[in-house]
Amino acid sequence: MNACSRFLVATTVFLTCCAFAQQVTPPSTGHPSLDQYRASRIAVYMDDFGQLARYRDANSSLKPPAAGESRVVFFGDSITDVWKLEEYFPGKPYINRGIGGQTTPQMLVRFRQDVIDLQPQVVVILAGTNDIAGNTGPMSLADIEGNYASMAEFARLHDIRVVFSSILPVHNYTPKSQEFFAQRSPEKILQLNRWLKNYSVANAMVYLEYFSRMVDDKGLLKRDLAEDGLHPNQAGYKIMAPLAAAAIEKALAGNR
Fold first, then answer.
1. Run of H or E including 253
2. CA-to-CA separations, 241 to 61, 171, 238, in angstroms, rounded
3. DSSP E strands: which ranges in the chain?
4. Which of 154, 170, 171, 152 is nearest to 162 (CA)?
5. What ranges make up the beta strands (E) of 99-213?
6. Which of 81, 83, 136, 171 has its CA 20 to 30 A from that of 234?
7. Inter-residue contact 107 to 155 (CB < 8 Å)
8. CA–CA distance, 207 with 215 (Å, rounded to integer)
């Protein structure tokens, strides 16, 4: 290969790499921390978009529900992921299948593995805040609603009762909360919660109302319920736990 040919090959490789880099580098969202987060997740988005590997081993070692067991799967993002269910629901056969940062399209990918295949009687779904933020890219409310509806339809096909949880409010009262708040429109949260409630009523599902119990008089998350304005602290989960328990009992009663 002569020098000219080597130059042409090297140039072609360089331009191909540049084009590939442009394809996998997420466009700027206008929020530096979100841009950094999305850039750090490129490998996940390309190799295991739904993050099926997270719970694959745990699922394979999980036994089928025992006779009379009312198994419940809590399915969601980081708010579910960090919730220590065994502390708030001691002795209950409740399974945590939350993954931090996830959006509804990611959850839809893993819905069969992490919900249907576990044979629960009830699934409690808490999601949407990361969709509004744009963690996996811009999403319209219609797109988010469609993903919710798909999960509900899949669950009903397998006789799993569905509980749709309202999206939690957010606040901007602390330095840690500024970026999370800027990424999440309170108006979009309200709009999506209205849809979740209406869909639940229209489809004989249980709607779990967290929002009204955690919002302050300014329409934001109460300051003492989350240091970062998004993720509940112990006080926040203490409010959420009895509400979730009541919703699960209502869903189970409907199942019976």
1. helix 234-255
2. 27, 21, 6
3. 72-76, 94-98, 122-126, 161-165, 206-208
4. 152
5. 122-126, 161-165, 206-208
6. 136
7. no
8. 17
Residues 38-92: pLDDT tens digits?
A: 788 888 889 999 999 999 999 999 999 999 999 999 999 999 999 999 999 999 9
Angle, CA of 255, 141 and 82, to the nearest 5°: 60
Q: Is the pLDDT of residue 21 over 60?
A: no
Measured in degrees and rounded to the nearest 5, phi and psi for residue 171 equal: -135, 165
Q: What burial class does residue 242 get, using C-beta atoms within 10 Å of its C-beta: 0-12 exposed, 13-18 middle, 19+ buried?
A: exposed
Tell me, yes or no, if the pTM score tops 0.90. no
Q: What is the pLDDT of residue 25?
A: 55
Centroid of chain to Cα 135: 10
Please, are residues 211 and 169 in contact by the beta-carbon 8 Å criterion? yes
Segment (H or E) for 157: helix 141-157
3-state secondary structure of 215: strand
Tokens representing 233 are 């602290």
Evaluate whether 150 touches 112 at the Cβ level (below 8 Å): no
Residue entry with tokens 């490789």: 13
Contact 209, 201 (CB under 8 A): no
Task: Look at residue 41 in the predicted model and tell me its pLDDT.
Answer: 81
Strand partners, 95: 73
Give bridge partners of residue 161 from the DSSP assignment.
122
DSSP 98: E
Helices and strands: H and E segment counts in the chain: 14, 5
Q: What is the Cα gyration radius of the chain?
A: 21
Tell me the domains of the chain and their CATH numbers. 31-255 (3.40.50.1110)
